[in-house]
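re the bet — no i am not wrong, look at it urself. input seq straight from the record:
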Amino acid sequence: MATVRVRRTDDGFEAVNDRGARVAVDGSGETPGAFTPVELLLAALGGCELVTVEPLTAGRGHRPARLAATVRADKVATSRLGTITIDYEVELPEGEEKAAEVFEAVARRVHASYCTVGNALKEPMTVEQVLPGSSGEGRSA
């Protein structure tokens, strides 16, 4: 199970995981050094794909010399995102004929089925809200 605690601080909001990592969160997009919730979603998707692609390509003997991605989404309506695009930036190892073929095959498989964040975004899922004093009956999706 993954758990993150989000709380208000004197400076805004922050998300903290069980290992103590912290990230500043800001709803306006104007606070320096803070991510908006949508930016965190995009970072989670890009991070999920990259941290899955890299060891799988490396395990096949073709670790990219450089691996990055730009993840973007347009807001199509209030509180709605349109298509999310993951634009890979890759420098493959020199002299490895099969590196491009391996990278492409792995990246496509990761995008299609191995990235948990991507799978969560593609499939309908239940999101429950529990408010103080509710016995579970007041949960809303």
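see?? The beta strands are 4-9, 12-17, 22-25, 66-77, 80-91. told u. also The chain has two domains: 1-35, 36-122. so pay up
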